[in-house]
Amino acid sequence: MSEQVHNRLAMVRAERKVSRRRLAEAVGAHYQTIGYIERGDYNPSLDLALRIAAFFGLPVEALFSLEPFRPLTDEVYGRKPV
Questions:
Q1: pTM
Q2: Banded model confidence at residue 75, pLDDT cuts 50, 70, 90
Q3: Which of 11, 17, 67, 69 has its CA 20 to 30 A from that of 41?
Q4: In which element (H, E) is residue 6 found?
């Protein structure tokens, strides 16, 4: 059974101004794989998820989750889920 892994990769990549190609080269993946992950078409291996998190200097759970992420504005401004 394979669950979808939700991610904030595209948002973090854009915020840090990192291209898919640059991230892929840094973590030893193909740039298309990064796109597949961002779109939710492919779940990264644990190894790849950890390498991506390390590249950005973030805990893996800041980028990947089995549950959908709350909108960032809710987290920043403290809106509680309904």
A1: 0.85
A2: confident
A3: 17
A4: strand 6-7
